[in-house]
Amino acid sequence: MRERRPLIGLPGRRKSIGQIDGFPSSLHHLHVDMYFADYARSVYAAGGMPVHLPLDADAADWAYHLDGLVLTGGADVEPERYGHDNHASDTEPRRDEVEFALFETALGDGLPVLGICRGLQLINVHQGGTLDQHVPTHSRYDIAPHEESHVLAITPGSTLHSLYGDTLQVNSLHHQTIGDVGQGLSVTAVAEDGVVEGIEMSGVPVVAVQWHPEMMRHDDPSFRWLVDHARHRSRQG
After folding, report:
1. Which member of 92, 117, 126, 150 is catalytic?
2. Domains in the chain, CATH or no CATH each
3. 150 is catalytic
4. Its pTM surpasses 0.90
5. Could you report the per-residue pLDDT of 92-151, keeping only the tens digit for each?
6. Residues with Cβ within 8 Å of residue 180, at least 6 apart in sequence
7. Which of 72, 80, 190, 207 has a CA positioned 20 to 30 A from the CA of residue 227?
């Protein structure tokens, strides 16, 4: 009998069709929920079943049905949430509201969480940390998204070290970075210029990265880590 794939939640952005090229003008008042398909492909390649999470559902209800969670990339976290004025952030407050609640519920229920790009930043802000709102040297849109941009040093003994080893070459698609590190978080990967690119939480299955592993390879070990933890949780009931 085939084993059920763990259910991995994927929240994303909501856009009006008028913001997307290629649709008839008569549809421009409608909306689409979206994230890059690479997230879902990576979840599936790791043995999980990706589950779309719309902005309309209740976060507590989602967590009840899920075995794990990916906090995906996208818009900037609202600076008011970490006590700063907005001087370089493109925000989506409704998405913030939903994903903060979702992460809070996931922590309470013991769901394994993988944060990617915005996901790392959201986790840091949730834990009381801050963000640097514009670091243009890390926004490498001049090269293909799968291309390596810089090298990270990874902390021995960390989860990321068990997945990647001492160093890792990564892509770079973010313009914001972690400023002050939030409470309960350990920095486990750092770029050559000192920017934090990996964090973990002690005692709970939460790992977050600033780069986009799903765009580099769909069999990335971070997704296998997430699905393995989700499968174990599912078996435990």
Report:
1. 117
2. 7-128+200-236 (3.40.50.880)
3. no
4. yes
5. 999 999 999 999 999 999 999 999 999 999 999 999 999 999 887 777 878 888 888 899
6. 129, 130
7. 190
